[in-house]
Specification:
single chain, mainly alpha, 5 domains, two-stranded antiparallel ribbon, 3% strand, elongated
Length: 388
């Protein structure tokens, strides 16, 4: 449209120059052309009009030739702006259909935009629609086409990698992410995909290396990823080399790493998972004395060995200092139950429920009542838990 307006303006100026230019210089002027026996004589105005119409004819012929070659090479843009408008209309129809969940209509509409001048975004949208309509039968093909457009290359490759991960093709997803430009790989979405791929492959050293340079990019997610990295590494050591290797790994960690609460929680959890509740108790007590972090409460509840005296004494000391804290009574109740002291467990759990209602504590009380053959009272508790 802009080009058309410019052409019209230029033609108007040219016509004005042809019709009125000779008045400015006071000479009408004539042109003589001699080619052998051929003699042509015309005024300047006539010559300018001939040149003008010749230029217009050349432009029309050139436009027709271009449209002809586009037609025979498979382009849908046979009629210029009209076809583009139809494609744009179909593109917006596809977006609107997606917004209301009519993916069948969206698929029909988006198919009318190919190839189209959308910088590959129409192929990305088509891939998303295909996931919902055809379980992703054409996703990889559509995203591969989108990857050829500079404007959509990074987005298409990111979605392609995510799709490959969903298909458990982690090595292929890793290769796809590595093909992304190094600068683009610093984007938060790409970093998270990178971490997910390497975590799935068990490349915990790669995960830790990436985390060390991505703390600012990940923001609040950094702590979760750091905890996952340590948990994955510890789990791998425990499963392949056993508990002794796990404890040695903890001892070899730098002091700063040992002070990280996330690392502490993961280490103690792995000890408990390995059936080393008795070994986990002194470690947990020592760390909890330094920092009474509520995150440790769940670990205390999981201790499962006879007479966890150190842990119980610590929790009882906390209760004396904070007698209205229902969570502390809950911790004491679960530890007592796991150690076989059902009398203490019932007293503690009743006190916890007196201070605050909690489904987990309710279930523990019901279990304790069942062990006393008080089935009706236990059933009443179960019913109340279901209704709430």
């Amino acid at each position: 449209m802009k080009k058309l307006i410019l052409y019209i303006i230029l033609i108007c100026f040219l016509l004005a120059a042809i019709l009125f230019g000779h008045h400015a210089i006071g000479e009408k002027g004539r042109i003589f052309i001699a080619m052998g026996d051929l003699r042509i004589q015309m005024s300047v105005v006539s010559a300018a009009i001939v040149l003008l119409f010749s230029s217009i004819v050349i432009m029309i012929v050139w436009w027709g030739i271009k449209r002809f070659f586009r037609m025979i090479t498979g382009s849908r843009d046979w009629f210029g702006g009209l076809s583009r408008k139809k494609q744009q209309k179909a593109y917006f129809q596809a977006i609107n259909a997606c917004a209301i969940g009519d993916y069948d209509a969206a698929q029909i509409a988006i198919g009318k935009t190919f190839p189209g001048e959308f910088g590959g975004s129409n192929y990305i949208l088509a891939a998303d629609i295909d996931r919902k309509v055809n379980q992703g039968k054409k996703v990889e093909n559509l995203l591969s086409i989108a990857e050829t457009f500079p404007e959509s290359e990074v987005s298409a490759k990111a979605q392609h990698a995510a799709w490959l991960m969903q298909q458990h093709q982690f090595t292929a997803a890793k290769a796809m992410l590595e093909s992304i430009d190094e600068k683009a790989r610093k984007q938060g979405v790409i970093v998270r995909l990178w971490l997910s791929v390497h975590a799935a492959l068990g490349d915990w050293e790669e995960v830790k290396a990436k985390l060390s340079v991505s703390k600012k990019i990940l923001g609040d997610d950094y702590v979760n990823w750091a905890q996952q990295a340590v948990q994955g590494e510890f789990s791998e050591i425990a499963s392949k080399e056993g508990a002794n290797a796990l404890m040695q790994k903890w001892q070899d960690l730098p002091r700063a790493a040992k002070k990280d609460v996330a690392n502490q929680i993961v280490y103690i959890q792995q000890l408990i998972n390995q059936g080393l509740s008795k070994d986990a108790e002194p470690v947990l007590v020592e760390l909890a004395k330094k920092s009474r972090n509520p995150a440790f409460y769940a670990l205390f509840k999981q201790l499962n060995h006879p007479s966890p005296h150190q842990a119980m004494r610590l929790i009882e000391s906390w209760i004396k200092a904070d007698a209205e804290n229902a969570k502390l009574y809950s911790v004491l109740a679960h530890m007592a139950y796991n150690s076989g002291d059902h009398e203490l467990a019932e007293k503690a759990v009743r006190k916890a429920l007196e201070l605050a209602s909690d489904p987990e504590d309710g279930r523990l009380l019901a279990i304790l009542l069942e062990k006393q053959n008080a089935f009706e009272r236990a059933n009443n508790i179960y019913r109340s838990l279901l209704t709430s």
